[in-house]
Design brief:
The chain is α/β, with parallel strands linked by helices and about 250 residues long. The protein folds into 2 domains: about 10-140, no CATH class; about 145-254, 3-Layer(aba) Sandwich (Endonuclease, Chain A), CATH 3.40.960.10. Helices cover about 45% and strands about 15% of the residues. The protein has 10 helices and 9 strands. It has helices at about 10-20, 25-35, 85-90, 95-110, 115-120, 130-140, 145-160, 200-215, 225-230, 230-254, and strands spanning about 25, 45-50, 60-65, 70-75, 80, 165-170, 175-180, 185-190, 215-220. The chain has a 4-stranded mixed sheet with strand order 6-7-8-9, with helices on both faces. The longest helix has 24 residues, at about 230-254. It starts with 7 loop residues before the first helix and ends with a helix.
């Protein structure tokens, strides 16, 4: 009879147990358990809340006396660092793009939203990873005022070749951010870049669906797209406007 093969979760638990009762899955292995980033091939990451760490094949054990007891929870009965602690640890190893992807995944899985994560970093001031994670979050959680966002979007639209839009215009029973009657185009700009409650998401979907059902083209841009993806946002606007003009020309020629 062949030897039984442990599942990955079984291997994680075995690695934690091998490091003693104060061990916990951490770093890339913790990220894999939480489902926010891929695990690094090779050794399993375990943090131990004492100065000396076990040296065992297949286990990357870190002695971390400063790791707080409340930074460790259980997921699927495996001791693991919390999502906050895991993201801070990831910030010491991942490039910015991969770290941003992990933050996004944590938000999508309702583990922690970026605004709460940013506020929580004050408790970890001075620890490795906090500075780079804070810099990433500051870029994504800073919000322009509604007027500043409108001004910036107007410039993008003008550069894309669109005429001046109507703003705060009521149509299909809703007040919209921007409306181009000649193009039958509605654009909404979201003030939040990441986290939106299920209720607010539902309201947005109903608005968008109402405009689409009325035969209009509906675009929704995030705060991040308006503030940091200017070229891409402008290109999408220009292409959408061109398609609208082509449809109008085709309809007139029929």
């Amino acid at each position: 009879m062949g030897a039984l093969r442990l599942t990955r979760e079984g291997q994680w638990m075995a690695a934690v147990l091998a490091c003693g009762e104060d061990g916990a899955l951490s770093h890339r292995s913790a990220a894999a358990l939480w489902g926010i980033a891929a695990e690094r091939p090779g050794a399993i990451d375990v943090s131990v809340r004492r100065r000396s760490a076990h040296r065992r094949p297949g286990i990357h054990a870190r002695g971390r006396p400063s790791l707080r007891a409340n930074d460790v929870v259980r997921r699927r009965n495996i001791p693991v660092t919390t999502p906050i602690r895991t993201l801070i640890d990831l910030a010491t190893e991942l490039p910015e793009t991969a770290l941003e992807r992990a933050v996004n995944e944590a938000d999508k899985r309702d583990l922690i939203d970026p605004e709460t994560l940013r506020d929580s970093l004050e408790r970890y001031r001075g620890e490795p990873g906090v500075k780079s994670l804070r810099a990433l979050l500051d870029r994504h959680t800073f919000r322009l005022s509604a007027s500043a966002l409108e001004t910036r979007f107007r410039k993008i639209a003008a550069t894309a070749g669109l005429p001046p839009p109507l703003t705060k215009h009521w149509i299909d029973g809703f007040e919209v951010d921007f409306y181009w009657p000649g193009l039958n185009l509605v654009v909404e700009t979201d003030g939040l870049r990441y986290h939106r409650t299920p209720a607010s998401q539902t309201r947005d979907r109903v608005r968008d669906q109402s405009h689409t059902a009325a035969g209009r083209t509906m675009l929704r841009f995030t705060h991040f797209q308006v503030a940091y993806e200017v070229d891409r946002t402008g290109a999408l606007l220009a292409r959408t406007a061109q398609l609208a003009r082509e449809r109008q020309a085709a309809a007139q020629s029929e």
